[in-house]
Amino acid sequence: MSKSPSKSPSPPPGPAAVIEADEPLAVDEDADGDSTYGSIVSSSTSLSSSILKFRQENGRKYHAYKPERDYILPSDEQESDRLDLQHHVFYLTFDNKLFTCPAGKEGKPIKRVLDAGTGTGIWAVDFADEHPETHVIGVDLSPIQPSFVPPNVAFYVDDLEEPWAYDQPFDLIYGRMLTGALTNWPQFITRCFDNLAPGGWLELDDILFPATSDDNTLLPDSTLAKWNEHVIKAGHLLNHSIESAKYYKQQMVDAGFVNVTEKVYKWPINPWPKDPKYKEIGLWTEENFCGGIFGLSVALFTRALGWTSEELEVFLVEVRKDLRDRGVHAYWPIYAVYGRKPEE
User: Is 325's pLDDT higher than 70?
Assistant: First the structure.
């Protein structure tokens, strides 16, 4: 198992400019429960009963395929709704684009795409709709993808940390919000390199913990700051680091990628910004985290830190209050890192 370097790189230039705050609004302190949003109807076909059973833990379902992988996020309808909402936030962040790298813009067609850790499959389906000439494969530990998809999409249940056995290379490998999902990032990035066609691209888009603020309105003794600290500690204890994004650029370079580019965006924790785009992103980010924070937290807190789910629920009431506080001008850094496999 490889270890991430201890030294954190300095923030790169790019679209992560300082955001101007809008006037704060009143906070609804009573709305503190997990919520759900409409999404693609999830189903699956021709999968073994052991995979379809799922595991029950703290009132949530988790994948049953290779449970020893100890994946920290649930695999149930609530999580699927949150993932589809998260897809919308990325779409807003990237100005209605599904990816940021130059794949397909250099006269080289995108014939095959791998969506690594596809989740609900919504990105793969959208990509297939936009590129009917491209064969898209989505891989995930859980069979939560839809049955009715474009004819150029195929979904498979598999473990990205096991050896890969694809018979043809890809022109684009895409991974989104995989922080906390993998235990050996250099191995994963090397496998991506080996399974790309010459000139193919790898793009990783991910969140970086902890949340931060440019004007110090996120106080270090706040409940939200403490939640961030607990989540980071628990991730390391379970060997599922959620600080992986800051190492992607160097790990791609080490694996042999060229033209490696790192951009940092911002997801405001709520609609505190004045800018309309950031305000909308903050609106959906607030729903994403406040609505799904129990599912995001419960495995980390109970498996690694020894909390009970009841203790966590009480703690999260105060975390949600901080997330909804328009006077806290905090955001999560969102990293978009991509690189190209050299032409032979």
Answer: yes
What Cα–Cα distance (Å) separates residue 226 from each residue in 73, 127, 144? 20, 38, 32
Both tokens assigned to 96: 């209605």
* 175 alpha carbon, distance to own chain's centre: 8
Q: Are 242 and 330 in contact (CB under 8 A)?
A: no
* pLDDT tens track for 83-137: 999 999 999 999 999 999 999 987 889 999 999 999 999 999 999 999 999 999 9
Q: Distance of alpha carbon 2 from its chain centroid, rounded?
A: 21
Query: CA 205: distance to chain centroid?
Result: 7
Q: The dihedral of CA 104, 110, 116, 122: what is its sign?
A: positive
Q: pTM, whole model, 2 decimals?
A: 0.84
Question: How many helices and strands (H and E) does the chain possess?
Answer: 8, 10
Q: Tell me which residue of 49, 73, 51 sits closest to 62, measured CA to CA.
A: 73
Alpha-carbon distance 158 to 117, whole Å?
A: 9
> What is the predicted pLDDT for the residue at 271?
98
Contact yes or no for 244/206 (Cβ under 8 A): yes
Q: What is the pLDDT of residues 193-243, one digit of tens each?
A: 999 999 999 999 999 999 999 999 999 999 999 999 999 999 999 999 999
From CA 259, how far away is CA 182, in angstroms rounded? 24
291-303 average pLDDT score: 93
Q: What is the pLDDT of residue 16?
A: 61
